[in-house]
Amino acid sequence: MAVQSTPPATQTDHVQTSLPDGKEGRVTASPDPFQDVFRDIMSRFAASVTVVTSFAGDRHHGLTVSAFTSVSLDPPLILICIDHTSHSVAALRVAGGFTVNMLQEGTGEVARKFASKDPDKFTGLASTRPEYRGAGLVLSSESYASLECRTVKSVEAGDHTVFIGHVENAHSHRPAKPLLYWQRDFHRLMPD
Ligand SMILES: Cc1cc2nc3c(=O)[nH]c(=O)nc-3n(C[C@H](O)[C@H](O)[C@H](O)COP(=O)(O)O)c2cc1C
Predict the structure, then answer these.
(1) 88 lines ligand 1 (CB under 6 A)
(2) Are 88 and 82 in contact (CB under 8 A)?
(3) Which residue lies with its CA nearest to atom 6 of ligand 1?
(4) What CATH code is assigned to 47-180?
(5) Does ligand 1 come within 6 angstroms of the Cβ of 53?
(6) Ligand 1 centroid to 52 CA: how many Å?
(7) Which of 86, 105, 186 to mutate to test the pocket of ligand 1 (most atoms within 8 A of CB)?
(8) What is the whole-number distance in angstroms between the Cα of residue 115 and the centre of ligand 1?
(9) What is the pLDDT along the chain (192 residues), one digit of tens a residue?
């Protein structure tokens, strides 16, 4: 059964959803039932996890990001989607660039820390300065690869800003497997 994005006139307790195996599922009610269903479906979409770093206002910034994808090979472009409620969005708007650090398996604690509001997220982590001046710190111990990017465009999209970055430097640190996020928890990649 489909759920439409227009809120119903009267509030229901639950929204019926069709789960992948055909069983009916229930989603806890909220003021907007469509958002519950949308969130639930997206939580079942497994994603790789990154830490996006930037430098602005004389300090380093970083947050955990799964909304990352490549856009173009020639020129080399990628994008990230950043929530307007994050502290990092203001830094990314003025920084002129950022670094995408692709987290390797076993770094769930690092991802949790960068998903928090801890003012000192970089303590205890080995980091190096980027070669491209406008980018953020490179986390070479926790990530298997890092992309230093120059921001070429930002697009407002609902409650997020999409930053498109031109890859200025690409670092492959080691051939490790990625950290995965699925159903609100971190996982390891296994062969099918
Ligand atoms: C696995 C995971 C993926 C996330 N992906 C994103 C994302 O793509 N974009 C985003 O804005 N926030 C994302 N977040 C939430 C931010 O990491 C979180 O709001 C963080 O506290 C923001 O930090 P800041 O306010 O210091 O910038 C994600 C969190 C987790 C745990």
Answers:
(1) yes
(2) yes
(3) 65
(4) 2.30.110.10
(5) no
(6) 9
(7) 86
(8) 5
(9) 566 765 444 333 343 444 444 444 444 556 788 999 999 999 999 999 999 999 999 999 999 999 999 999 999 999 999 999 999 999 999 999 999 999 999 999 999 999 999 999 999 999 999 999 999 999 999 999 999 999 999 999 999 999 999 999 999 999 999 999 999 999 999 999
Q: Which atom of ligand 1 is nearest to the CA of 68?
A: 8
Instruction: Identify whether the C-beta of residue 153 lies closer than 8 Å to the C-beta of residue 106.
Output: no
**Which atom from ligand 1 is nearest to the alpha carbon of 82?**
11
**Domain coordinates of the chain in residue numbers?**
14-43, 47-180
The CA distances from residue 41 to 38, 59, 152, 180, in Å, are 5, 36, 31, 16
- Dig out the tokens for 16 from the structure: 């019926």
Peptide bond into 75 cis (omega under 30): yes
Whether 64 lines ligand 1, by a CB cut-off of 6 Å, is: yes
